[in-house]
């Protein structure tokens, strides 16, 4: 058998390689990217890192068909997935506490979308109220009327469903 090459060993220079002059980048060396003074902890924006205790770990388990049917039926009653149901059972056994499962929404997708639009409109109206208090009511009056008309339309559309 041949020995594996040592990854820490430097490749030998070939006769075609020309040593780089100071201040001149060599053609066979990659350009450094990013700011070398910036640390990874200086990263701005983006989603904050999760606390390690909040992260979920995947566990695969095999059960008999009889147990699967019981898990399936129990999950259906509580309107949760089989994974959530089985995880809750295991957590309850390990902590010896009753586990509460999240409540599922009984709204249709259209109703959820309309509620999202309504919440956005109410948020917009709140921002206009702040602007009116700051800049004067005459400035925000037209915008407030327009947002109120949109909210009336959304509310009447939701009442028909």
From TrEMBL:
InterPro entries: MobC. It holds the Pfam family MobC. Residues 39-53 have a biased composition (Basic and acidic residues). Residues 1-53 are annotated as: Disordered. Residues 116-141 form the Bacterial mobilisation domain. This is Bacterial mobilisation domain-containing protein. The lineage of its organism: Bacteria, Pseudomonadati, Bacteroidota, Cytophagia, Cytophagales.
